[in-house]
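TA notes. Do not distribute before section.
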Amino acid sequence: TALPERRRPGGGRPRYEVVRELGAEEVRWFYREDRKTWKPFIGYDSLRIELAFRALGSSGGGGGGEPAAVEPVCVRSGLYEVDVASAESYPVYWNQTEKIPVMRGQWFIDGTWQPLEEEESNLIEQEHLNRFKGQQLQESFDMEISKPVDGKEAIHSLKLSRNHVDWHSVDEVYLYSDATTSKIARTVTQKLGFSKASSSGTRLHRGYVEEATLEDKPPQTSHIVFVVHGIGQKMDQGRIIKNTAMMRDTARKVEEKYFSNLATHVEFLPVEWRSKLTLDGDTVDSITPDKVRGLRDMLNSSAMDIMYYTSPLYRDELVKGLQQELNRLYSLFCSRNPEFEEKGGKVSIVSHSLGCVITYDIMTGWNPVRLYEQLLQKEEEELEERWMSYEEQRLLEELYITKQRLREIEERLHELKASTISKPPVLKFKVENFFCMGSPLAVFLALRGIRPGTSGSQDHILPRTICNRLLNIFHPTDPVAYRLEPLILKHYSNISPVQIHWYNTANPLPYEHMKPSFLNPTKEPTSAPDTESASAAPSPTTSPVMVRRHYGESITNIGKASILGAASIGKGLGGMLFSRFGRSSATPQTMETGKDGPEGDEKKATTVGTPPLPHSSSGFLEPTMELEHRIDFELREGLVESRYWSAVTSHTAYWSSLDIALFLLTFMYKQDQEETDKSNLDTI
């Protein structure tokens, strides 16, 4: 098979050359994660690691004296550092128990360009230099595809522990396995699919296929995204890191495909804040029966989150924990990237599940104590309205005056304090976009008394001064997700969420040009013909979630049902999922049958105690107002998903979705584009 062309940035080296020691640009460093194959660092990283490695060697590391300290090398867009002395890499922004090994590649296997293990590589390299240094080298890969060497005599040979290397000429070097059990033969045959590495030998190359250059470097980060999880289980620390890595890798693919011409770059950082908290120690864990752990973990991550967060004991600790971690990460990032703030770098947050509620509360400074004070005030007002005896009235007036006095003293004390210490802002940065995924935020807001208003502005629930844009993403069958738009304008409960484009849609319509489309008005159960209800594939309009939830006022009923359903863990998973769908008695079977499709759903939906929507003559509510910006965005459902199954998995299916990665980047790059366009206009 033909070799990949050796790419030489400088227009190639002379055809004939003398064997010399490998240049720093010919060596390539690799890293290995999760015990998978070795991955090459990009040129910029590899070259800097090699220079640090050489500095370490030349500073007399082995000469009995103390090895000189070499600065760790920043790699992989600044997310990791490499400690050359210990040949390990570790993340900068989060903790990871497993270190990531790195290795120095000098000799490579033909075809895959995987490096030979370092010890063997060193031995072969030493032998090669001893035997051939100063000799003329013919650039064979320019002139010929490697000729079979079976009949050719070896001019030099080196015995290794389980294999030997034969030089048939200066640049025709083959590795032969001496024992079929040899580790290298095994890995070679497994990875490369050679039938008999032992008989045919494996061709080796000295120096990597591509020279490392400092130009091969990642673009500057212009936008950071903090990825926030729910509370989850204590043992589960690693999951947000893995989820963020999935999201980052997916976003990289999308960037390469759609945004490669832009010199900017979006970086995703996991906000792992749960492990720093003590909360209940492991009390809840210790009271969980053994048999149900697997199922309970899935349930607990949502239900337990909600219970922790509504517990006055832990709420403050949770809010403070997340807030401190966000600020720590931002400060650390800015200290390592001093030009980020100067160049107007932006920050967005992606939160999942209950993480959305906690992030919202940090941004807005919402506090349950405020709610309690409002309730007390209301009680007082009610007291004043009823008839009272003279004595009662006198006492009440005295109480009123005392409270007034108390408030004045508190305020004066507060002013004195405030003059000495100015209160720092809660977050050290302005949030550009707040993306909620699988978020129960709407239920929390509804239960805190937020009701639809008359203006179509996001300010009704999240002021634009705090956060420029709020976007709520959900999978149509996610049991924990709720819509936000009907909390701003009530009639949006009858307008379907915006459908998120599939990743591979050619020339999709920009989201701001998509017109609102109405959901099917609720029909009388009898009027739907059989054929219609039997179509099992859910289309966006018949997708069960939408029919089931008539938002408006009833969002609170269903919301309560859901949270209480989640909280009474005894009901098990089914109870949690279906109390939210208004049919706790449903079994997985009834969900799957096509006959019990939209039509059956509607019958059951009305049992939640939902008042039917008021209809105008045209079949749906008259639109009075439109939202300034759409907020609810729904993933398009795959046609093959069984509804029961997707209800279980959909709550965690956001991380690796290409559709979501494209959606996030579309909004982040769009703003960056708009601003550069604006500043270009200004200069003109």
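Switch to the second chain here.
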Amino acid sequence: AAGSGGGAAGPCVPVLLPLLLLFLPGLAAGPAGMLQPRDTPSRERRELGGLWSFRADLSPGRDAGFAQRWYRRPLRQSGPVIDMPVPASFNDITQDPSLENYIGWVWYEKEVLLPLRWLQGDPAPRVVLRFGSAHYYSIVWVNGVQVVEHEGGHLPFEADISSVVQGSPGTLCRITVALNNTLTPHTLPPGSIQYMTDKSRYPKNYFVQDTRFDFFNYAGIHRPVVLYTTPAAYIDDITVTTTSSDSVAMVQYQVSVVGSTANSLSLSLRDQEGKVVATGDGPVGELKVLNPNLWWPYLMHENPGYLYSLEVKMQAQVGGALLEDVYTLPVGIRTVHVTSTQFLINGRPFYFHGVNKHEDADIRGKGLDWPLIVKDFNLLRWLGANSFRTSHYPYAEEIMDLCDTYGIVVIDESPGVGIKLPESFGNKSLQHHLAVMEELIRRDKNRPSVVMWSVANEPASELPPAAHYFKTVIAHTKALDPSRPVTFVTDANYALDHGAPYVDVICVNSYFSWYHDPGHLEVIPLQLTAQFENWYKTYQKPIIQSEYGADSVPGLHSDPPLMFSEEYQKAMLREYHSVFDKKRKEYVIGELIWNFADFMTNQGTTRVLGNKKGIFTRQRQPKAAAFVLRDRYWKIANESSCLPPVITSHSLFL
């Protein structure tokens, strides 16, 4: 659904967008690795969470920060600043309504003292500054020196700042970030700035941010900022794939090293008891594991989410010094295969009974919040959910870590949501989409929980340019990672969808008796059955109902069920479930409710403090529908499980 974010009197067309686009060529994406920072015998990490100095650029062109070079000195010296927590969205932190819907450049700053051991030595260690994500476009300076630019609000970026901090007097490190949340037809997700030129109705230079997606465009430094070190010669990237049979598994690996040719490179694979089960050496090879413990999804095995630890150790001569770098990567041994009617994990049919989510909560917006993350995983397991889709953007690495650990299966989705305008299918948008898929796969390629890539959600795939666009994006994704199937999520007519021929699994969103025939629950069996049969007859590919649901206002009751009541949400789910139960015996391989929890959207006449399609409230309290879904998911788990004794919610969770 279309939405808009508000803006106060602001920049005219010639100022804001050229200012944003001025910085687009300097992307940080490239061939380098993006290993998650970890403490090891050779590496240190330091999180920079807490309070940062903050200022929104309220100048008419949003460009005062660049004109006055705010990055050249402490931010407090160029004007007033306020405290801003990191990680968090800035929108809901203050009582200032202009910041809630602010569009343009904001500035963050943090001053930290570095340990002397990070600045000395021959050779001195490599010091890296890493952002888990910042929405949307970022420019970063250290001690007044620009070190990195990055486009995109949901994936990590980093910069080697060794030369800057080791060449500066003292140990002070001043980090300055300029962040712009403007969305254009060529960003991902796309958007557009609409200027209101009727002076009888709007102030001078009034504009709003228009988007074609139904969630609030929160902005800020949303995930942890980390300083970490490596030796001057270091392990840059590790790629792992696995195959298995009944009694043996093979772990194929590829390791890249930067800074010097490694004198030696050794690998040790350890089980959860610390026992070495396989060893190897050299940058490319495979490890043979006898009688492996496979990575199984939650509720599919009595020990789900089994992870080995792959320790990679490198020694290299740099000058007169022998350097050693050590990195440990969690590894899950599992296989994925798709047939015309099934989705197989480790050779066994897997049925997705799960949810769609959002990174969204009161006050912190999309900011990473550990209590909320742990609560959500506890609710997922209480619910009997075995999977979720990262709707509609990549989620934090910390969330993905727990998916690996708990055995929660993930459809990993790019920020390709709201691709509706014809100009968003052009070459400029396409090239950026390809770069985003490279960044996403580079980050998540080794995760056993990730079983499928989703390149987009509800694009205008009925438009003719969508054929070339999605053929190219999907082919590129498969070339980067041949080990996983690829999909995108559609709400187009089966006969008109130009992207569907290229996916491995059909993912369909539909809201019968809500957006179509509102209030008429009786049409669901006929329309949903026809939907499945038409898609399968056309493509002969397995189908996931990737979204379905209804808004319900907690505490609003009606019998007979009326829209927005908890009873209507329950009734709609049951109508859908009756069709799912027939078709999952054939070619339907999954169902993902929309949504796990209520979430914030732009203001509009159909949204009362956000989208209310959650089975939990935004505060994570259950609505009546949560219990309907819980009963269903545990029943499905019992039917499909071969565990002795029969799984119950009490034996595995409560």
